[in-house]
Task: inverse folding
């Protein structure tokens, strides 16, 4: 059978002369397009987060084979490496892929909060926007044309988990099951991050905040930690994405029935963001995946080596699951140390939107 995959490219003119950026896009045409969900998946919007890149590399190999066999039912768009601008920004050998060095803006914030009905306006008069702004508009435009949107990220040291707008829950538990995530964070749709901007645009078409969006999904998937990049884990996550696409009828598989998701789903207000009360070397006493009780010792900060009387203990404010941990072993005051998913609302308070900047 003739292959139906299209290779496209997004060209982003640079903000200095003779510079431009190219973003490869793979488009797999479904043989039942229109009657099946349309899918958009991207990785490395935060350019230094590579697990999703490896995962999509493996998934695309399987999609190419399925495409040749006529086994793709719904249209699938894959952007395997979404941010070449961030990938090219290094400081002393360390890729600075989360924040744009020119504007200091987070590549996964400040997406336009618009209605899906004005999607075409995103590509109007693009020359008046900076390269990072233009990149966001190009990616956002493509995502708004889909029904199922997956933005693949990772945390620092982390269990696999997902941010899912409560508007999609529990319908989206099939994704959590397919990827075998250890936790779901139920977001509130109050930020300008990519996946929440997508759901915001859809909600505007259905009455605004609190609207139900059956059959749709926009989610951030955190594929463990930044160092969790390798052939085995990439294949496992690619197989998980494939199982999700099967379950939604996008690829052959007879709408595979997935086992129910049995992990926890935490509202963002119940996530304890453990911060360093002061500076010092970090001696962690608990790891990701540990379940802790209120008062358990999480870490000791050593501000003055050789003077143990000045050590600072960091203890759990309530019982919960350690989902993430910093890979750094030195903290400045108020640096993030851990995320702990809990049953009760945190007493620390939280502004609406994302957990981190």
Result:
């Amino acid at each position: 059978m003739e292959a139906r995959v299209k290779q496209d490219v997004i060209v982003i003119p640079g903000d200095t002369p003779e510079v431009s950026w190219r973003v490869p896009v793979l488009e797999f045409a479904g043989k039942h397009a229109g009657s099946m969900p349309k899918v958009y998946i991207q990785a490395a919007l935060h350019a230094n987060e590579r697990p999703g890149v490896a995962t999509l590399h493996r998934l695309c190999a399987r999609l190419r084979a399925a495409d040749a066999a006529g086994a793709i039912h719904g249209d699938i768009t894959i952007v395997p490496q979404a941010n070449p601008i961030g990938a090219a920004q290094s400081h002393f050998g360390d890729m600075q892929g989360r924040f744009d060095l020119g504007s200091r803006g987070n590549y996964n914030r400040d997406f336009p909060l618009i209605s899906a009905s004005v999607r075409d306006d995103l590509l109007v008069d693009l020359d008046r926007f900076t390269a990072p702004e233009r990149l966001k508009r190009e990616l956002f435009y493509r995502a708004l044309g889909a029904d199922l949107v997956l933005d693949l990220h990772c945390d620092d040291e982390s269990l696999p988990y997902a941010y899912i707008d409560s508007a999609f829950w529990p319908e989206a538990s099939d994704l959590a099951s397919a990827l075998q995530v250890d936790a779901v964070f139920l977001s509130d749709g109050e930020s300008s991050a990519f996946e929440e901007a997508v759901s915001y645009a859809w909600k505007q078409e259905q009455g605004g905040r609190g609207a139900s969006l059956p059959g749709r999904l926009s989610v951030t998937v955190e594929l463990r930690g930044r160092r969790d990049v390798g052939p085995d884990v990439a294949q496992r996550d690619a197989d998980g994405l494939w199982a999700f696409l099967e379950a939604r009828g996008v690829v052959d598989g007879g709408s595979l029935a997935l086992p129910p998701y049995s992990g926890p789903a935490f509202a963002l207000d119940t996530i304890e963001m453990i911060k360093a009360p002061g500076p010092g070397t970090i001696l962690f006493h608990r790891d990701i995946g540990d379940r802790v009780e209120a008062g358990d010792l999480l870490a000791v900060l050593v501000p003055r080596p050789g003077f143990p009387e000045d050590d600072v203990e960091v203890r759990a404010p309530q019982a919960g699951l350690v989902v993430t941990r910093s890979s750094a072993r030195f903290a400045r005051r108020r640096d993030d140390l851990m995320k702990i998913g809990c049953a009760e609302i945190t007493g620390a308070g939280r502004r609406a939107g994302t957990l981190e900047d």
The two ends are 47 Å apart (CA to CA). The chain has a mean pLDDT of 95. The chain has six helices and 20 strands.
